[in-house]
Amino acid sequence: MGKIRIGTASWTDKTLLESGWYPAEAAKNPEKRLEFYASQFPIVEVDATYYAPPAEQTTALWAARTPADFVFNIKAYGLLTGHPVKTSTIYKDIRPEHAKANIYPKDLQPQTYEEIWTRFLSSLDPLVAAKKLGVLLFQFPPWFTIRRSNKDYLVEVKKRCSPLKIAVEFRHASWFDGDNKEETLELLRKHHLPFVCVDMPQGHKSSIPPVAEATADLALVRFHGRSEEWTSNDIHKKFGYLYSERELKDWAPKLRKLSSAAKETHVLMNNCYSDYAQRNAKQLIDLLGA
Hints:
Elements: E1 3-8, H1 14-19, H2 24-27, H3 30-40, E2 43-46, H4 48-51, H5 56-64, E3 71-75, E4 85-86, E5 102-103, H6 110-122, H7 125-129, E6 133-139, H8 148-161, E7 166-169, H9 180-190, E8 196-199, E9 218-223, H10 235-239, H11 245-261, E10 264-269, H12 276-288
Parallel strand pairs: 1-10, 2-3, 3-6, 6-7, 8-9, 9-10
Antiparallel strand pairs: 4-5
Helix pairs in contact: 11-12
């Protein structure tokens, strides 16, 4: 059985800070917050990098403030997965002038887009040097459907990021409709691309079924909650779901199966509201003895 790392998709969420989960001396101190988090969990997913690329000085601090065996999974900047981003988040010296408030990759000059790729990957150098970078999470948008150009882009992304590892999360049901399920999993296996298994609300166009499959030597699972308000623009209504012990127990054999098929399994609680993710992550650790 491979190693299982369990953690959460945030350590700085405002509602987490307000929940009382952090000791008083850490609640208002960024350095002590990360140190405390790392004393409780062996891994964290950084979602802030989806909204804006990090500064290299920031990733260097993350590396310095965590134990030697701690791991950071980094969510790819939205532009690199085809999402629109706020123009203000693009590096200032290459930011398009007179652009709209939000911008898509197609709105950029090719050389600007390439430079963003280069700088984003370079910003992670301190984590790479410290051997603390787990994977780059590429969560594709709901309009990223199963078609040839998108399959080709998955392979392109892997080549762009090499030798860094990437993992792929889909948000359109077409990838798992009918026979597409096996086609999708085989594509990922062929190119040694880790599939991100998800637990999420069902019945939406963005819903992916809870398929527990390892397609590479690393397996990943992200728990998004099962909120009835998944389509809400309020992020806390969308992800504010506390899993019951029964729901987590139902996942335990699936996680053990994944860990037997992969060298390492990363399990991240993304139900980031209050201390829900931290509480559920601790429950999973107890259930699996991880």
